[in-house]
Amino acid sequence: MSKPLGAIIILLVASLIVGWILKALDLDAQDLLLWIGGFADTLMDIFAGFLGWAAGPILVGAVVVVPIWLLRVIWKKAANRRRSSIFPPLGYYNIIFVRYISPKSTIPFHHYS
């Protein structure tokens, strides 16, 4: 059985079982959707209240934090540019390693028992 077909069968069986349980509890789809809608409205109200409460402090903090972060990013880029001009790129060392230490090379290997 393919994975999508198996997932569809599992979803159908789970839906059937949950449907039987909800029917036994005397709940129908319309009541359930109304409850979910009310719950979503409540969550949106809570989220909007939080944004209203936090917007001022977030903006004031951003006035300080964002310029410091920007200077840090610029400083790191400049340091990486200076470092990359001194050392060759990382791929260079991989080429040297592969060229001089190949699987056919004879490197002494010690077994510790």
What's the helix and strand layout?
Blueprint: H1 3-24, H2 29-86, H3 90-100
Brief characterization of the structure:
By secondary structure, this protein is mainly alpha-helical. The protein has helices spanning 3-24, 29-86, 90-100.
State the main characteristics.
113 residues
Task: Please tell me what the overall shape is.
Answer: elongated
Question: Low-confidence parts, pLDDT < 50 over ≥5 residues?
Answer: 96-100
Q: Report the sheet-strand fraction.
A: under 5%
Number of domains: 1
Structural class: mainly alpha
Query: Quick one: how many beta strands?
Result: 0
- Report the radius of gyration as a whole number of Å: 31 Å
Gap between N and C termini: 50 Å
Largest sheet: none
Helix content: over 70%
The count of helical stretches stands at 3
The secondary-structure element order is HHH
> What value does the average pLDDT take?
78
What does this structure look like?
The protein is mainly α. The chain is 81% helix and 0% strand. It has one domain. It has helices at residues 3-24, 29-86, 90-100. The longest helix has 58 residues, at 29-86. It is elongated.
